[in-house]
UniProtKB/TrEMBL annotation:
GO molecular function: endonuclease activity
Keyword Membrane: no
Family per similarity comment: Belongs to the type-I restriction system S methylase family.
Annotated keywords: DNA-binding, Endonuclease, Hydrolase, Nuclease, Restriction system
Oligomeric form and interacting partners: The methyltransferase is composed of M and S polypeptides.
InterPro entries: Restrct_endonuc_typeI_TRD, Restrct_endonuc_typeI_TRD_sf, Type-I_RE_S_subunit
Residue ranges of domain Type I restriction modification DNA specificity in the record: 32-175, 196-373
Lineage summary: Bacteria, Bacillati, Bacillota, Clostridia, Eubacteriales
Protein's name in the database: Restriction endonuclease subunit S
Length: 396
């Protein structure tokens, strides 16, 4: 990794000519295309299209692919820019396959990515994208120009590799911590016959169905509220503050959860998320939406929440769900789920252990995207530093 002083020295006094992208590249036509219907998760040939995924899918169809080489891929509608250095099949339409006239494909890719201004609308963009100005250092000295371009590519590749390594390390750490957490959770929540009392949820508490809260009801301030969709996308297993609010006038009409209640989302698009429990730990009561149940009880709320994350509950809700695209578990079925009930003292002990694992796992989960974002910003900063030359000379 080179520091900013080295980079400044690398570019010190360097003449640059700004040249429109289309003068530096050729566009090539793929020998064949495949439709979305033939995309597969696995196959011998990767498919590249204008979507956000680097590789959109795979196919085993015997059709001619784009030969292995270095290319820049531009989504004519999506405006996604990709660097590809392998053989692939074009997926659908709207793809511009760009091949630089010289051998500095990676440099032009970095420069194009840095200087192209996205319009962020669904029209064809290549007619304006091709005019993007690309800085060519030392245009009168091809050898020196290539040397500088290669060094810029080397530095940016290093940042890319370091970011990828960090992501892989953090992801591996997160996976290991989750396995460890799941192991101890399931071990601590597994009891021998006769060791503890077993009771159905409706024997130890009451389910109250949420009502009437729409996303359009959210306000900047007011009474805290939780929409069932937020339980999957925003909250972990416990919460003391809400993301959103409703007006006091609407709050009067809505059902509410108090401290220690579980808020259980009963509708989802997948079996993993349905019935995800959220323990409300805030001092003030909170409004809840439809497609949720508030579970009121006199047990340790975290103990119940942890048990509703075990394979035992997963198997139960899998057997008792309804629907395919929209999956539900009705309150009657939810209430019949039987859980082990050790003493409150033992529940507290188990929770204190699992809380430690949960905190470690959550900190890594939250830290992963933050660390990646920091690395991405650092990469973009240096990319901009290396590719932002003075525009004194422009060759349109």
């Amino acid at each position: 990794m080179m520091n900013s002083g080295y980079m400044a020295k690398l570019l010190e006094g360097v003449e640059v000519e700004w040249i429109s992208l289309y003068k530096l590249v050729n566009t090539i036509t793929a020998p064949a295309k495949v439709k979305k219907e033939v995309y597969r998760l696995e196959g011998k040939t990767p498919i590249v299209d204008q979507g956000i995924d680097y590789i959109a899918g795979y196919t085993d169809e015997e059709i001619k692919s784009v030969e292995a080489d270095e290319y820049i891929i531009f989504g004519d509608h999506s405006e996604h820019i990709k660097y590809v250095d392998f053989s692939f099949i074009q997926g659908a339409d709207g793809l511009k396959i760009i091949k630089p006239i010289n051998d500095m494909t990676k440099y032009i890719y970095y420069a194009f990515t840095n200087h192209y201004q996205k319009e962020l609308n669904y029209k064809r963009h290549w007619s304006s994208a091709r005019e993007t100005l690309i800085p060519v250092p030392c245009p009168k000295n091809p050898e020196k120009s290539i040397g500088i371009q290669k060094e810029i590519v080397r530095i940016l590749d290093t940042f890319t590799e370091l970011t990828a390594e960090l992501t892989a390390e953090l992801t591996a750490e997160l996976t290991a911590r989750k396995k460890q957490y799941n192991y101890y959770r399931d071990k601590l929540l597994t009891f021998e016959d006769g060791e503890v009392e077993w009771k159905a949820l409706n024997e130890i508490g009451e389910f109250i169905r949420g009502n009437g809260l729409q996303k359009s009801d959210f306000t900047e301030t007011g009474i805290g509220c939780i929409h069932y969709g937020q339980i999957y996308t925003f909250y972990g297993s416990f919460a003391e503050e809400t993301k959103t609010f409703v007006s006091p006038e609407l709050a009067v009409k809505l059902r509410k959860a108090q401290k220690g209640d579980l808020i259980i989302a009963t509708t989802s698009e997948n079996i993993e998320d349905v019935c995800k429990p959220l323990v409300w730990l805030g001092e003030e009561e909170v409004c809840v939406s439809g497609e949720t149940y508030v579970f009121k009880h006199n047990q340790n709320p975290k103990y119940i929440a942890y048990y509703l994350q075990t394979p035992m509950f997963f198997d139960y809700k899998k057997k008792n769900r309804t629907g395919t695209k929209v999956i539900r578990v009705h309150g009657e079925k939810l209430g019949k789920f039987v859980i082990p009930l050790p003493s409150l003292e033992e529940q507290n002990r188990i929770v204190s252990i699992l809380d430690k694992f949960y905190t470690i796992t959550s900190s890594i989960t939250e830290g992963l995207p933050f660390e990646i974002e920091l690395r991405q910003k650092q990469y973009e900063y240096y990319r901009n530093m290396l590719l932002s030359f003075s525009k004194e000379e422009v060759n349109l």
